[in-house]
Protein 1
Amino acid sequence: MKLVIIGSVAAGTSVAAKARRNNEDAQITIYDRDYDISYSGCGIPYYVGGEVESRDDLTPRDAAFFKKRYQLDVLTRHNVTAIDHEAQTLTVENLETGETFTDSYDRLVLATGASSIIPPIPGVDSDNVFPIRNIQNAETTRNFVDATSPKHATIIGAGFIGLEMAEQLKLRGVDVTVIERIPQVMPPLDKDMACRVEDHLEKNGIELLLGETVTELVGDGHVERVVTESGKTIDTDLVILSVGVRPNTELAKSIGVEIGETGAIAINERMETNVENVYAAGDVAESFSLVTGKPIWRPLGSTANKMGRALGDLLTGGDLEHRGILGTGIFKVFGQAVAQTGLSEREARELCYEVEVLHNTKPDKPAYMGGKDLTIKAIGDRATRQLLGVQIVGFDGVDKRIDVFVTAMTFKAKVDDLFHLDLAYAPPFSTTKDPVMYTGMALANSMDETARLITPGELQKRIDAGEDMQIIDTRKASQFEKACVDCAVNIPLGDLRTAAKDMDKDKPTVVYCNGGVTGNAAQNVLRNLGFTDVYNLSGGNKNYQLFKKYGN
């Protein structure tokens, strides 16, 4: 078998390596128009910031390594310009010499990845405007920062890479403004979780311009000012483009490969395209959601590696398949970790799930061991009692908890199952009732109607509509006076049983504390006293105040 792979980063090299492990006789060639192969694109911000010292740390393997280890040919700076899928040949241009030649294949893998979106803004081609996608981008950006010691940077786009770049440049002493066209950072998150990231960024000196669109980069070949649609002007020394990426599907389209609804190549679980003997993997290809079963596109190195390994096995007689993804992601900014998996609340409601939402703020370990609060937002489906998605913001233990949720969701565990997990416990690592367990318990109780939850957004809608409700703040008077929910009255938990005698048991009642625990205790008291419609405010007053500050 003659296997040709176009693209040599995560997916392409994984296909080749697995195929060679399975089959010593296959002839394997990889073509790539770039200079570097098998590099860590996710490490680029840390190289620009100096946390990663050498570019070699991001490019641990080269063509010589693959030739020696796997006896396969990796030809960099070789651009495949055309494919004849009927003859099963391709035309290749050597970008260093200009020579063109023809090669043939039995099986062809498209692993052409994705490229940075360059917005059509006047001045975007200036010498101090940098996309962040490959090693050349990284080196050019770092060299500029090293040589010019800029005082201010403007970052366009507030996704993973944009926020990581904001952190790294700030740590180098550069003032940073982040501009994002939608009114929040991290578009995959719900606003009530993104606001926690925004608050943390601002506390660390990052200026955020949200709901703003850049219309012009002003300067004669060198940007000096950034202008937004609302008329704001930002003096700046460099601009980072982080507005997203798009799959490199040009070659695929040229031979009639079907493009899916996400804009990436449509494939099945065997990563076959609609064109015979042509396959696709990595950032250029769609996956499918383990929650909905529908196509999903999440260009991440972890997914590309998995797809590549499975495809390399399939092409050499194995039976691995691509099983789909949840769209899990995680990043950190100024010590704060942000993770998400599955559907957001917004997506779940758009897909008409019967949604149950919990905001659970708990320490990652006991306070006497230095525990710090992490906030878990869990979205469940009342019809099936399965988790639809989880978002976590905190400082320690976020990665551990998101991975537990991912595992549970992958194997279709119900929210009720989470409490029964035998998770590792010792005070340096966790609380006796781990936040994951508590999340399952609280969601299950809410679905059972024994401890119903209401989100700040839902509560505010009912308040604004003038609904006749009883809203009870169960905290101390001193806490109530500092900040409270609109229309609330203060009845500390210890006084609630007495005060309940004068309350309407049939009127909708909402109780809350700071984070939710005392609110739940108050909810139980009222239910046991015969109150028929009692809710605990999800995430308590802390969550409500963030909602009020940042909107929904």
Note: The chain has four domains: 2-113+246-314, 129-243, 335-447, 453-550.
Protein 2
Amino acid sequence: MVLFNEFSTIPSLLRNVVKTIHKPEETFLIHKKDSDWEEISFGETLEHADAVSAFFLNRGIVKGDRMGLMIENSPEYVYYDQGIQQIGAINVSIYPTLSEHEVEYIINDSGIRAILIGNTFLFKKVLKIAANCRNLQMIIPAFAGYEKVSIPEGLQIDIISFDEILDTKKELTEQRIAEIIRIRESLRPSDTSSLIYTSGTTGTPKGVMLSHSNFVENVKVCLQQIPVIDETETFLSFLPLSHVFERTATYHVCCAQGCKIAYAQSLELLAKNMAEIKPTVMSCVPRLLERIHDKAIKSGTADGGMKAKIFLWALETGQDYRRKKEAGNSPGLLLSVKKALAEKLVFSKIKEKTGGRLKFMISGGAALPKNVGEFFGNLGIKILEGFGLTETSPVMSVTEYHRQVYGTVGRVIPGIEIGIQDIETKEMINIQTHESFDEDFECAEGEIIVRGHCVMQGYFNKPAETAEAIDKDNWFHTGDIGRFYKGNLQITDRLKNMIVNAYGKNVYPTPVENIYLKSLKIESLFLIGDKREYLTAIVIPNRESMQEAFNLPESFFLNPELFISEKEIIDWIGKDIKKYSAELAKFERIKNFKIKRNPFSMEEGEITPTLKAKRKVIERKYAESINEMYMESVEAD
């Protein structure tokens, strides 16, 4: 039997931490139990994992079997994942927000044999479809009170408490432990570790097959690019582990480095949890950073007077200081003194809300508006941006800790190639690697393609779709448009999002939308204009700002009318549309818009679990309202 390097598989990472970095009794996981934060050690985590492994071996689970999880971020996720991975089973994490139809499709497409369930609502959802899931043998509730839920009559599937499974650790024999070790050490880097189903902005979700090597190599090179992460860090985890970004950037990184992971209770309690846990690192999405930015600006300037003047002075001072440092120059004594005063009067108060210990945050999942990144840089909080897809494990590029270029997603990670290919001719514009990095290099934009250790094994049971995504030269076609700017990768937009107006002008929605999102009145914006003479938009207002401005009751948002018709609100938004249009070329400016009363909804199928708008769905659903915007003669500017 050939043994592989202990860094080559997911379960070997955590075992190595206990062997070389931390004692078994040291804290690994932190979660809220009742009203107190409870700490769980590395040793206890591994004991629970062994119990899970032993239970499933007793039930006939073998290497290659697919095992489901539909549960919020929690210690139970880790126990189950580590337990199945070390016996060669494959993790299939399902977004808790998916519909019954989508969950049923994934369970059947992947052939899940057992599924871990996190709460009563999800339990009921799975019970409704369980009889249609041909391979499903076990449903495993990981919450109290599941016995009170009525089970469909005649259901031939075992329902087993996760607590009952964890209790089997008391019965582990030396023989069973030896078997678990044998299987774990026989795992190959090329073995499939996980199936992650794509969000599906178009078409049916596809199961992305990622190997142990995909994940482990991704973690290694990210730690190489961000060498400041060490075993003393505390990560606060709140993005879903069913998404590859949080799985790699938090969970797997912590397994490799021996960092603590604290689990936020919910998005609503995130701010409270940050103050309690005082994390040093967090993975996040741009929308969270935009909200922190908007609230800080609003709080700092709302009262006007001297308070607002001090706030704006502090931001300007922070900007001057940051630019000097980034240019490699000394800030000088006077600027350093001003920066220290700005820190005391303004920045420290904002940082306190994050717990006061943040070294940096990792932003991914979408493009971060340049002005938001610069705002945090002015405060002295580093935001490292990364880029990648589920199909690339996910990271393809990430900001270097010591070299920030706002508006880009960083340097190519070691061991892969990123190419920029002409959209029309398919000619290669440029290929960059980690080693070819030149901080002055720039090139024209095109489709971003990649090959190397980060690229998936393929789509599960979909050879035709795999062949379409990965060409004969092993380049994976991302469908994203971008270029290299100052040596870093810069994302322009999605190829499928590109708008070509009636005059043949190409418009990439994301950078245009980001200009308008500078407005504190706008929560999000959906751009329209393909094959049309000009651009229009569906605007989602910032609810809090709008309520304050017009003293609106909650009943206003329960009105069945989809779009807001009040002229004063339309004019209020229109002022900012006109203001920010000045920063854009004429063909990129919004000429008309409608204000949607409530945000696009996942339940309505308008957005994906990662909050990406489903363009075809939205354009089809609101076709009548969109056509009205082109029939109206009034223009926003």
Note: Residues 1-5, 633-637 have pLDDT under 50 and may be disordered.
Protein 3
Amino acid sequence: MPDDSPVAEFDFIIVGAGSAGCLLANRLSANPDHRVLLIEAGGDDDWFWIKVPVGYLYTIANPRTDWCFTTEADPGLAGRSIIYARGRVIGGCSSINAMIHMRGQASDYELWAQATGDERWLWGGPDRPGETLALYKELEDYFGGADEWHGAGGEIRVERPRVRWKILDAWQAAAAEMGIVPIEEFNRGDNSGSAYFHVNQRRGRRWSMADAFLHPVTHRPNLTVYTRTQALRLLMDDQVHDHQRRGAWTTAQHRATGLRLLKDGQVIDVRARREVILSAGAVGSPHLLQVSGVGPAKLLAEHDVPVAVDLHGVGENLQDHLQLRTVYRVRGARTVNTLYRNWITRAGMGLQYLVLRSGPLTMPPSTLGAFARSEPGLATPDMEWHVQPLSLPKFGEALHPFAAITPSVCNLRPTSRGHVRLTGADTRSDPKIFCNYLSTDADRDVAVRGLRMTRKIMAASALARYSPQEMLPGSSVVSDEDMENAARELGTTIFHPVGTCAMGAFDARGLPRSAATVLDTDCRVFGVAGLRVADASAMPTITSGNTNAPVMLIAERAARAILG
């Protein structure tokens, strides 16, 4: 229950009960001497559609569970603004996301190690430096049990998908004709090939990070959870104790002492005796820092926000995976489109789920994946496909009235960078999200190659019996210029924003080596003692694939740094 004292005091205050926040609340409250407060702007995760895997159709773009952000008009998307879903509910994005368990590739963590100067981020393994693989194994409860690559008994449940599609098996065979061979699974460090995605589910139900980390410990008397509570700004003072002058706090002139909140219509203050940890995500965390006076001085001055720390990287360095949705009509194939057309088959799907916890209602947004190189000389794959046995004009609209599949391809290592910036001194005003997609030659080149490779796969003999017909972008799109324009028209987010409070390296004086750096390798905010950011915004570079699992890695590392 919430503390009723005028100014409630805790040892640790965590902003955001999403994936990272749930893990941090679990770890920090394990010591009964720690009083921990977890703050969530949304409500409880007890809605039926959160637990049913296909319920993402109802939770995304729904204010009950989603912040319902939209991006700024983007030249890279032909001037379009798009929906930018972010979880606003206990469990955060893990309560509304695709449930795909994807660690990324070993090469991703080499970039993190280079950016931070910390070899612990390396993938690791027998006789190799780095602890990333070992931490993933500790966190995991893998359906196949513990082995060289996986762990058992951890909190994060990982299972096989509970439905297969012949049309997707045929797509996988067609990809093999193009050199993208079937593999047993992703998550072993090099994802080259194709496989059905492993998912965060337990017996056919979504297994969010709230299920994994928060719900099992809500009985702890030293853990308090505030729901429907908006963080308005950080509270700071100028008294920095010597023992807090470590890492990014070496030159700190301020200390985070708590937060101002809006709870039950009342503005209240809560105090943190030890630390405040922001886990509000790649949009929420930089926004809260900015309205609190931590960010680019020029930007803050434009909105009459007093500058506490002039920190250029806050809100900058936004990276995301842009998926290019192609649609192919097929004949003689069972797809979600054909099943959903008939009320009898719809009822059958529901019954199959209720009785057996299997079938299409257990399906994540994308079922089959594939990784490949856009150029032969690359060391590891830089393109990924998410293949869906369905199609629709755009998210939120009705399925097409014909059988079809959607092979979406994305650039795993975009060089385009966007930003998140405040629009005023109040966190209740949505920030500006500018993704700046396809703003570099390199990204446009990969987009063209991805569309061409998709077309080659769809023309392979393994799919011939289904007579695939290209609906989007359409056979009239031929030249590179046409392909670029198609990418702008078709492109949309896969909801993987990262990097807006990036970790980086510091010099001997305790100063960031890069203008993009906001955090040190232990997620401490430069210039403000007692303050960390532990969520997707901490990633210096985006990982190869879905980002929820890497967020859990960051949260676990941050928890160990705090407790250590």
Note: The chain has 14 helices and 26 strands.
Protein 4
Amino acid sequence: MSTIDTTCVNAIRVLSADAIQKANSGHPGLPLGAAPIAYELWANHMNHNAKDPKWANRDRFILSAGHGSMLLYSLLHFYGYGLTMDDIKQFRQDGSLTPGHPEYGHTTGVEATTGPLGAGLGMAVGMAMAEAHLAAIFNKPGYPVVDHYTFALCGDGCLMEGISSEAFSLAGTLGLSKLIVLYDSNNISIEGNTDIAFTENVQARMAAFGFQTITVEDGTDLDAIGKAIEEAKADKEHPSFITIKTQIGYGCPAKQGSAAAHGSPLGEENIVAMKENLGWPKPQETFYIPDEVYAHYAELSQKAGAAEADWQKLFADYAAKFPDMKAKWDAFHSDVDAQALLNDEDFWAYEDKPQATRSLSGTMINRLKDIMPQLFGGSADLAPSNKTEMKGEGFFSKTDYSGRNVHFGVRELAMGAITNGLALHGGIRPYAGTFFVFSDYMKPMIRLAALMSLPTTYVLTHDSIGVGEDGPTHEPIEQLAMLRSLPNVNVFRPADATETAAGWYLAATSQKTPTALVLTRQNLPQLAGSSKEALKGAYVIADANKAVPDAIIMASGSEVELAVSAKDELAKEGVDVRVVSMPCMELFEQQDEAYKEQVLPKAVRARVAVEAASDFGWGKYVGLDGTTVSMKSFGASAPAGVLFKKFGFTTENVVAAVKKVVK
């Protein structure tokens, strides 16, 4: 190791420790211990360019152990990604570019929002899948225009979380050889030595998943780390897992190797002692970085930029030789024409017969696959039930990465993270399907998608007690409320074919918001009043005769038909009711006050909401004088028709509820 290499590694340690101390908050252990790993990777093995952070063929780096964020911020600062020393000094402060955990879209150079341990590993698998898929589609002999690696740095906590096993099991099955995982193995967690809860042979587990496994015994040996990375790159059949044995808090005499270094500042005296121990100049001075460090990182950054220059020339030649592929590339990396799709009669066409919205969704997927070549997705072993398969498009596999359908296996949590990784990579528009009740397994990753403003799509079928005989374990009750509580998620529960098309239109054209499509197992009729107005979140699907109706019935999904039926019965008794279909509360809340008043006039206080789920969230629409026809308990195991009657989802019960609020 050269003197300048040693100094540059120590610069990461010193800058991280000083920033965490100034904030009086943070995790110094990982940056101090893993600094040699990060330095060697970024300096000698990773293609990236600070002057073009979104370069399509860059290698991706995911800090799955996001609590060690100062490691990443130090790299971004030294390589010139736009983080200034003032930004570093504002670590963990309000509005800063250096939040406690890395945030995608907030800080240039951050590839994914990582905080929940292990989530970054699932996203890395998604990125590696995206690279493999796009390479299979676009690369030509002599023109590897898609040819990059995904690197993920993780710790013990990431590997304790079950998501790592789900994701890596699939990665091994798929033979994602461009995925390289760097394991910062220091045997320390917050509560102490990992042996108290984590004694498994991690390498054996990874080998069982189908990974090449490599071990570096000394985490300060740059040459050994570099050799391991090159060995990983040389394996063209397996993803690679490199265990690098480190000491948490390396260099700090008082805390090195102990849990005390993990999650709290080292203390000013300990930092001075660390700097002296590392031979750092001016140890008493905070945030001091020698000029030669910046000069060396500038040289490394220039070398990294040269790799992109070579690729840009290759791509220009490729575009000239294969203009049809260049046009396809542009299509993959462009948004759908929203106006054209809105006016596309074939997209909105439907057969006038009862159909389950899950089946109608399957029809829409197969219409969109020809409009959006970047559409890519599948289900958690449920494609025949979720209707998520794109016909004739093949399945993504180790032997055919060009397939557009994905067998995610029974891995909902990892599927959610992988879907995020696919979207983050670029050139892919992903969707993922499962039964609605199992969105519980996906929720943490849906939350991250919302945080990152990713336009991912979730196909969530079997949406209510209409699941029937499978019983309460499979009948979603509280999941609508759960998803609706998430900021920046559009939860769309359509009532028929037109509304299902609207839901997919919303998903296909979304720029920064995930879409959850909540779909029925049972057949529903095509409703006479349904329209593209569903894109406003709520609209009048069947109006009263009076200018001011006696009451308003609101419903979503399968219960809209029930609301219309109740309206017809009430009319016979002289009660004039308006029916509002509300497939998406979030979209309705985005409308102006005039439209909201037009649909739900404040003067009409007699309101009933009908939904075969928990009524949590309907209060703001029914008000103090209204009521709900909803689920007050878990479901049961019986045919769907029996259950709807058992739990009060009948015309008679809705009529009675309306009469009660009218009085």
Note: The radius of gyration is 28 Å.
